[in-house]
Amino acid sequence: MVRKLPGTAKGVLSYFTRHRTAANLLLVVMIAAGIYAFPKMRAQFFPDIIIDTISIGVAWDGAGAEDMDSAIVQVLESTLLAVDGVESSFAVSREGSAAIWLEFEPRWDMARAADDVQAAVDAVTNLPEDAEEPDVRRVAWRDRVTDVVITGPVGVDQLGRFADEFVTRLFAEGVTRTTIRGVAAPETIVEVATVDLIRHDTSLAAIATAIAEEAEPDPAGDVTGANARVRTGVAKRSADQIDAIVLRSNSDGSKLTIGDVATVRIEGIDRERAYFVGENPAISIRVDRSDQGDAIGIQTQVQQVADEMMLSLPQGV
Q: Residue 282: how many CA atoms within 13 Å on its side-chain side?
């Protein structure tokens, strides 16, 4: 049985049958167009699932989860859901804090959304007086491309310098979304025995308040015309400085210090917060991309920078 092709298809096929040069020319044009477009194609390991989100966080010391929900979340959420472009919201209430996440329509102008959310939050005037101001943040979408681990028989401070240099080299190659992990900040521990609190007639709250007041210098205003700010005092962070913080002055002229009541020590890095590869400390650099980033291209750039930097690292690193 012979079936006839539709008129248009028959005409096109018969035309290329009669004019073989035209068919070859079309093939060449299609190949050239593909070669031109290939370098401009974005490559990635998995499809993008992009959800544009803005978070609103509120802190309220001493409030329970139910109070946070009724006095913070329910008050803010009803106003925030009326913001243009909001598709849905998700909230979590905990003791002392609450967070609300707003999801927006795909490809919504998130710069405008952040301004609209901030304006909506500013318009809410019936939050508890002792609650902190809501913190509005735009959640940037990122996709992890790769992780680079630097490790070896050297100190963590030196590994940190290697990580900084690696990130700087990546930035020079156009890879700008990086996060250094595995560097643990020293922890200050103040231990106070109950018997010492009773002996010196003080409390943990008084000790915490005294340390908080001395931990940071105080702002003292602006320098007119110089675009600079003045801060007074000295940030007290070392164990000796914290020991010398005055809790109170006694009637006989003597002073009661933190060191008279408590034991202060600074602890460094431990395995619960730091990274190790075997017995050697390690630092990890996470590399991400935006929704317009080429995952395979970024991976190639990171590998090239790592190979170049390996040539200058100490033996064993």
A: 15
